[in-house]
Request: fold
Amino acid sequence: MLTRKTASRGSLAYRFGAVLGAVFLLMICSAFPKGAFAEEGAAVSEVGYFSKLDGKADITRAGSSTAVPVRNGDKVFVGDVVRTKAGSKAELTFNDKTVVRLAPESRIKVDEYLFNPDGGRKKASLYLFRGKVRGVVSTFKKKVIPVSMNESTFNIQTPTAIAGVRGTDLFVFYLRGTTGVVFNEGLGFVYNPRVPAQVVDIRAGQSTFILHPEAPPLPPRRALNIEFVRHTSDTTIENGEDNGANGAEDAVETVSGEGPDEGEDHGAGDNGVASLSETGSESLEGGAGEEVDSDASRGLTGLTGAEDSFEEATEYSDIKPISETSEEALGIPGAPTVTISSAPRQVTNSSTSSFEVNVSESATLEYYLDGALVYTSSSDGYDWEEIPVAEEGGHTMTVTAIDSEGLSDSATYEWFYGQRISSIYGFIDGPDTAIEITGTAALISDGNTGAWEFGIEGWPATEPDTPWAITMGGSGLADSSSVSGSSMTGYWIADMAGSYTNGLISGAADFYYLTRTSLISSGQTPGTVEIVYDPSTGSYSGSAGGEATEDRLSFVTASYSPGLLSGLMGGTSSIWSSSQSSPAPMIMIGKYFGGTAPRLWLNQNAYSRNFINSTYTTYDGGAFFGYSAMLASGPYAKGSMYSLYIDPSGNAGVLTGGLSGEVYSDIGMMKMEGTIFPAQVKADADIPYTAANLLSSLSIDNSQSYIAPSYPTISGPTADFTGSPNWGLSTSAIAGQDWGVWSLQGGGSYSSSSPVSGDYTLNFSDAGFNSSTMIAGTYGTLSAAAGNIMEGGVLGYGARQDTASSWISAGEFLGTFSPANHTWQSIQTGAWIETGRFISMTQTAEGQAALAALNIPYAEVGRANLTGTDGNLTVNMNDVVFFAYSSGLASKIWATNNISGSYTTDPVAGSSSVALSGNGLSASFSVNQWSGGNWLSSVSASGTYSGTGTLLGSSVNMSGAAAGAYSGGSFSGTGAGVVH
Reply:
């Protein structure tokens, strides 16, 4: 339910109200007698005096513990605590001619009273510990000037309530934990600071009560004549000595059967002094002519019918507020009551709003739409009207019922009307069970603003905790009749948190709804949650909702894994204007069916989608295709993405992205957030394709390994991992290009004598995929994380005989392991670049920037020449360059595009191995394939490097692969690998 007005006032009041305080803000400007004021910061001086006294009262000065009897005319200072005894009353007149009357057995403290230099009251604060007071605040020129709460000039506090008043006359009482507020003049609002979100509006002639320290105020109702009679009598000094405090002749105040009208003149003189009725012969009659007891000696006991004193009263449960007195028994006519029993959904796409209105008696109904009168009708019992709404956005309907005596009551309803609407449905995750919910998100047709809301009904297993936090989520389905040009079908998540007190769950909610075309969210303005928990039935009933902001997507891709995941991943910022230092944000939301067991999956078809024009492009004209790897283990979720791209200008390269988030297994949802950015490898002049035909220009290769179980190996401080014989490698490239993206999937078993933890070293360098035609490997350092997750970055290499080429690669490792059965699984994704292109990229600033974005080392730290012969095959590996992330750091990879040699007869694949040496290194060049004019070899070396660069004197262990072509007794090629 949208309650923006209530929430706004509640939050403001909470900032400025004391935790245990009742503030009644009398917002006016007053005149003061000259010389009778103190400036802020000045020494403490008198702020008023006792103008009337009937019976006994005492006063305790600030800093003293002794109560001194009061005499008429005694001065009042800031910090004074005034107490009236049983059967006694007192009147305080402050220097601004504001009058405060104390009923018997009341206790009040003057916390603060400050005046401006011009004589105007700056700030006053009184605290009512117990009893009852009437405050009539001076009204300069009888003009009320409303101000905000923090600018109020007059406060009265009780332990359980805060009220704001725009007026001059009110009663306040506090008894046995109950606060009562009755407005004689003015308008205002009341709330309990412990329940700040529940604020009620109140006006002249109405009353409200707070019956419990943790309870919100009761809905305001018409204050009965008997209430005004009793409160006036309790605070009127009938026989006390008049000290001339008011400075004007007192007038007799009478209270009519209908109660006071707003703005009624209560006898204030032209000098701004408020007059109070105090004659002992005052005639106070009920509507049926019943004479009302005005015996001042009864104190407050007339409110409850109890004779016990304040000191003996410790419970509030037996209080029957005056507002519950039967009007029929008193014979007093009351104002009609009006309620809106049926209204449009708070978020709707209907331009005609139907309202069913219930009225307690025959009355004239006035309908105000957004403050303007749009319809008038007569009603006897109920009324039902359809009101047309022209403009999309938020609207307020106020229905006022006016009876034949001119008494009135109003009811207000707020809702949002938007043409683009989507129904959302799903479940709440906890606190103890899944609760089904349904709701709506709506947006203005040509704008980006809207609203969201949903109803919450269900039966949790136990009473909620406090504080509480729950998550809800599900799917959304667009209303096709109101959506044109796009589909809003998508997935949503709402995270909620707050407090639970006395059956009320309240708090804030962040809402995210990812559709095929946009991200709809609560943005910087969280929504509100209001749920009632009934312990007698164990049921939930409530709602959540708030404002919504729509941001159109710049890119989106569908994530799908059969039986495991169905979701969307996208972002609202353009990828093509982002960079490694300023990446584009992205979000993934989807349905997840994998439970809590560790899961890994690869979305090989992570390609851009344009659901508006049905193309495979981004919404801003680019395109991408690649691999997104995802991991879910318990509540943790992680993801990575490497994709080929062509941007709107025709430039091409690799997109790199990372995500992290949570899995909500109880509701079958997951949500991750992260970033993505491009690394440009080629400019537009070198790419013969455009974004529109990226998918049709791809060259994709999938390879399956059949290798020894010892490949790969992962070793660490507490466990040794062994790979299974079955692994899958996939590579993709734009046709004709010598760079692309790759993925590698596999797993195995491990042995461990203690829990897996710490860092692990991954080594794929001992064997290869389909070793007769290709060698590939990766190497890196991994970390074991919470949720039995392994993750880290890897560097790699490869060579193929059929293409006579080698490459360098870099990427991310995502894996999980099971301590129960000592198995593990992983997915690696990354980018690869052919050796010759990689070396050329290390020589330019643009190339280095692209390599850095792909996390590939490019700074040269050493160079070696390795040569050797076995009598038949002579090998020269010249210009073997060692690369680090920056000069002075350890070498991570090596590459050369200058391999050459000679042979007498064709070497025998698998048995020809040539020993090489140079620059302090000893190497082995082993031929894996030599046929059809192409060759393939593995390379390894070790030693202490001697030569140029910062690698000098370092111990080097290197592995890798090489490939090339041969003909007529000579051969050439390239090679690359890792250093570890």
